[in-house]
Amino acid sequence: MGLTHFNEDGEAWMVDVTEKQVTVREAEAKGMITMNEEAFQAVQKGTNQKGDVLATARIAGIMGAKQTSSLIPLCHPIPMTRCTIEFELLPKRRSIVATCKARTEGKTGIEMETLTGVNVALLTIYDMCKALDKKMVIGHISLIHKTGGKSGEIINDWKEDE
Amino acid sequence: MGLTHFNEDGEAWMVDVTEKQVTVREAEAKGMITMNEEAFQAVQKGTNQKGDVLATARIAGIMGAKQTSSLIPLCHPIPMTRCTIEFELLPKRRSIVATCKARTEGKTGIEMETLTGVNVALLTIYDMCKALDKKMVIGHISLIHKTGGKSGEIINDWKEDE
Amino acid sequence: MGLTHFNEDGEAWMVDVTEKQVTVREAEAKGMITMNEEAFQAVQKGTNQKGDVLATARIAGIMGAKQTSSLIPLCHPIPMTRCTIEFELLPKRRSIVATCKARTEGKTGIEMETLTGVNVALLTIYDMCKALDKKMVIGHISLIHKTGGKSGEIINDWKEDE
Amino acid sequence: MGLTHFNEDGEAWMVDVTEKQVTVREAEAKGMITMNEEAFQAVQKGTNQKGDVLATARIAGIMGAKQTSSLIPLCHPIPMTRCTIEFELLPKRRSIVATCKARTEGKTGIEMETLTGVNVALLTIYDMCKALDKKMVIGHISLIHKTGGKSGEIINDWKEDE
Amino acid sequence: MGLTHFNEDGEAWMVDVTEKQVTVREAEAKGMITMNEEAFQAVQKGTNQKGDVLATARIAGIMGAKQTSSLIPLCHPIPMTRCTIEFELLPKRRSIVATCKARTEGKTGIEMETLTGVNVALLTIYDMCKALDKKMVIGHISLIHKTGGKSGEIINDWKEDE
Amino acid sequence: MGLTHFNEDGEAWMVDVTEKQVTVREAEAKGMITMNEEAFQAVQKGTNQKGDVLATARIAGIMGAKQTSSLIPLCHPIPMTRCTIEFELLPKRRSIVATCKARTEGKTGIEMETLTGVNVALLTIYDMCKALDKKMVIGHISLIHKTGGKSGEIINDWKEDE
User: Fold this and answer.
1) Which residue of B has its CA nearest to E60?
2) Counting CB atoms within 10 angstroms of each CB, which of A48, A52, B27, C65 has the fewest?
3) Beta bridge mates, A87
């Protein structure tokens, strides 16, 4: 069938990675939240000063990444050895781009952790801005880069205009 | 400043909802994941049969919605009294739309729960399909509807083409 | 179909309890673990003295009961207002019976919390005794009593011999 | 005293496994839930179709296994590298047997994870069927097989008739 | 015996609060961390600018307060309706004082939540400063104020010199 | 700036430990809670008999230590291989001293786990005694000893009189 999370009988399982090599694996994911002008400026004003939405979202995203195997049913618990979340403000689009990078030395990749980190960071920005904008959109969440493991290195363009 | 999650000194806090009325509050959020043809067909084949990606994602999304106040720093713990996650397959777009609806009877709204439910459901679909597609995109996550509370009823179009 | 955790289309959901009355609801569950003579005596010796397996299992069971809605997918989060775990030693059977009682004032029953409490307590006893006995059996876990809600009061005999 | 989870003074501790070898360790546990005819048929009808109780229970069991060290006080956190949950329907007994297998490469065994996985899976079946049967019994939970570690390989018959 | 968390037989239990009135309850706790000059200045420089240790500690403290009933065995889950964490820098003592205030409308008090919030905030400051100071001391953690419930209003001096 | 949990731009991150050696690392932390005579005697009476506050606090502390990386934002998840919590009663001071020792074989130290273990143990004693004393103070929490890693072995006096 092709989907690795199911055995022959179509039953979901946590894939067996016991015999895989312990190697360094990295991943990077990006995502974006778009808001109205009022909310965007409130975030912009607060950056690195009082009322820092992004500092809060960064912490939430890193903590969320650590919870990945508790949230995603068939994800393996893995030992995260590095995690960063960076933000970029795009004033013309009234948008904030979140990038999560993570590393591990283990038997399986860390893509889901970076995607979860991006998601929780963007959800946190949403939560903190929703008093000013009820129509925010979270999107363009995708994997940008990964190394290690069977599929080796993968580099994707970030599709910010689809 | 306008952002309610900060006090006068710009310090983040969990907003005081103690004096708010206990009323019924509802919310609905939508989001979408887009994939390649191979992954989309694998999901489509499995629906309600063997290898059901969507059944797994539905459970993960409902469980994720229940974890919202543990993930989003300034969210209040609230007693969820109903939660559903539905999926719609869009073959032309090779996409799956997830809709999460939730209800509570409490002092504050349940929007973040529905957004978190959608996010975790889509992340789970991603996890289960990533062996077949390393370029999937999660997006168009937004609030569609909410009732109750000070801001009353809000109905948003779902922006699936932006 | 009869199973309330599925809608008409067979999709799992968290049942809507929003309109239910807030009333006092109680439940009680029992379960048992059977072990060899060496392990049973080790537990018996430790009761209320040094090396108290049951005190540890009691704490784990109460804490586990509080995690019920995080473990059981379609369970509603409910505000537990009372929880006890008691043990009874049955020397002839080399068994320990665990009883969990809980109460809440809410919209839905607390049966799953008592069953989870019993399970986690018995698993903890297992964990603490497994160095002495690799063939322990956990069983006879069932609901003994519940009050409140639509199904009203239910009293079951505890089937300890099936 | 024999119980390894206590030091000389009878104080509970998490056993020191720091100097143990990192090896592959496996375990398998089984358990069973017995119900009335109506509930059993509802589960049977739903298998791999609409309203799939077992698919839900499988996900909950795997996720529960991952939470073992958070639930059982003196359990070590271990990196699970494989986890499966299978079900077998026994129509004559109106029962469902759950089997959880898991693997890790680490310093300590994975028995508690398989027992927890079985327990949470059976509790989930209970939760989903309780509208049809208030007298279900969960039992016969025991370790069937383990490899690795000081106690080496252990094979137990599954005591389904005690 | 006097300790309310034990029944007549000395068995620990979660006290029965089912019949208590639902009222507004508040609490406030304080605590302090003392460090060397180098670490203190690093924190002071970062306040509300880049590298804001206190902003991170504030978020961790609020999130930790929400986890109180998952951490403290016999604590009841309660619906927190407000939570703040404030810091005060004491340059002469090279110390940072953390104050956590919380409110709920429920059947039991919120003292443990404020104490846990202070503790997790101070532990977070410790974690972020430990590269500069291995001898930090966390202390003077106590309840300053509570209202509501049977014991009514209690006001304690903060013992910062003991 | 000196604080390792921030990058050049002052953004918080989880430090990269991927290239660090896997070695055995140990830590030990101490802390103390001071109470009135009535509460102290209740604890003293219960030690290793009925109503054992310390046994409960020990379990909570070990379980809390395991949650460290879920509570402290930038802490790495690490595999704890040993954890003990011991108590010492100081009748003249009406105080209880908690000591947490832990070990791991990994890429980063285990100090935060021991400090969290001490904190949660003391908070649990507080919770169980608060019916008898509303003025308890938790303090003198500090690292006593650590080995392994770049900073090697550190031995601190326990400052119980500051």
Assistant:
1) B73
2) A48
3) A98
CA distances (Å), C142 to each of A4, C2, C30, C155, D65, in order? 37, 21, 6, 11, 21
Question: Could you give the CA distance from residue A119 to residue A98 in angstroms, rounded to a whole number?
Answer: 9
Strand locations in chain C, DSSP E? Answer: 23-34, 80-90, 95-106, 137-147, 154-155
Using DSSP's 3-state secondary structure scheme, residue A105 falls into strand
Distances in Å between the alpha carbon of B27 and those of B82, B115, C74, D46? 10, 9, 18, 30
- Per the CB < 8 A criterion, the answer to whether A12 and D83 are in contact is no
Residue with tokens 């679909």: B125
Q: State how far the Cα of D74 lies from the Cα of F104, in Å rounded to an integer.
A: 15
Instruction: List b or e across E8-46, with b for residues whose CB sees 16 or more CB atoms inside 10 angstroms.
Output: eebbbbbbbbbeeeeeebbbbbbbbbbbeeebbbbbebb
Quote ipTM for the complex: 0.94
Contact between residue E18 and residue C105 where contact means Cβ atoms under 8 Å apart:
yes
Tell me which chain B residues have a C-beta less than 8 angstroms from the C-beta of C12: 55, 58-59, 62
Question: Do the chains contact at B60 and D55, CB–CB below 8 Å?
Answer: no
Distance between terminal CA atoms of chain B?
Answer: 29
Closest CA relative to residue E34, chosen from F139, F71, D25, F154: F139
CA distance D148 to D146: 7
| pTM to 2 decimal places | 0.95
Which residue in the set B7, B73, B76 is minimally distant from E59, CB to CB? B73
Quick one: pLDDT at residue D1?
46
Report residue F1's pLDDT band, with 50, 70 and 90 as the boundaries.
very low
Q: Which of B46-60, C145-159, F30-44 has the highest mean pLDDT?
A: F30-44
> Cβ–Cβ of D50/B50 closer than 8 Å?
no
> Has residue F120 got a pLDDT over 90?
yes
Mean pLDDT, all residues of chain B: 91
In whole angstroms, how far apart are CA B49 and each of A9, A125, B123, F151?
A: 10, 38, 21, 56
| Separation CA B71–CA A60 (nearest Å) | 7
Query: pLDDT tens, A119-159?
Result: 999 999 999 999 999 999 999 999 999 998 878 888 888 87
Q: Which of B101, B104, B99, B98 is nearest to B76 (CA)?
A: B104
- In chain A, residues with a C-beta closer than 8 Å to the C-beta of B135 are 142-143, 156
- Cα of D55 to nearest chain A Cα, Å: 8
Kindly report, residue by residue over B99-136, the tens digit of the pLDDT.
999 999 999 999 999 999 999 999 999 999 999 999 99
Taking a C-beta distance cutoff of 8 angstroms, is the pair F5, E128 a contact? yes
Question: For residue C13, which residues of chain B lie inside 8 Å, CB to CB?
Answer: 62, 82-85
Q: Point out which residues pair with B138 in neighbouring strands.
A: A141, B33
Output the six-digit token pair for D41: 């048929």
**CA B119 – CA E24 distance, rounded (Å):** 34
Which parts of chain F fold into alpha helices (H)? 37-46, 53-66, 68-71, 111-129
CB contact under 8 A, E70 and C63: yes
Tokens of F21: 């050696």
Give residue for tokens 């690195």. A48
Q: Which residues contact A36 (CB under 8 A, 6 or more apart)?
A: A94, A132, A133, A135, A136
